[in-house]
Amino acid sequence: MSGSSGSPSNGAALGAVIDVFRNASDALDRSLRHPRLREAVALMQARRFGQAEKLLRDFLDAHPRDASALQLMAGIAWRQERKTDAELLLSQCLQFNPDFIAARFNYASILLKVNKPEAALAEADSAWP
Question: Is residue 47 a contact partner of residue 35, using CB atoms and an 8 Å limit?
């Protein structure tokens, strides 16, 4: 059965990938416990990016090293076609919290989209245990 798609090693690898994504999702949920961050997410979902950005800027004035707020700001920047801002915000986010896997995946995705495939691969590789 070695080499087939149903091999135990492929199943173990898939399980590891699923675990990484599940852990990243759980960590992201935990990172949004602050009510102001949840409010920003709701504004973003309603496509009210200006209001969400103002709320996050105010939040970051009080909590300048909050990785979750920086990641949300990067999401707004990306949606507003401010790609360089999004890239810089995620880089800063990961400086403050290098273990923030969801942010690392987002950063890798943005790097890929701005035609930096080697950097994107390095970021994605660094997310795996």
Answer: no
52 in a structural domain = yes
The whole-model pTM stands at 0.74
81 part of a folded domain: yes
Give per-residue burial for 45-77: e unless 16+ CB within 10 Å, then b. Answer: eeeebeebbebbeebeeeeeebbbbbbbbbbbb
With respect to residue 1, please indicate whether it lies within any of the assigned structural domains. no
pLDDT in tens, 20-53: 555 555 555 556 678 999 999 999 999 999 999 9
Looking at this protein, which amino acid is placed at residue 129? P
CA distance 125 to 81: 26
Number of domains in the chain: 1
Looking up residue 15, the CATH number of its domain turns out to be 1.25.40.10
> What range does the domain containing 102 cover?
8-127
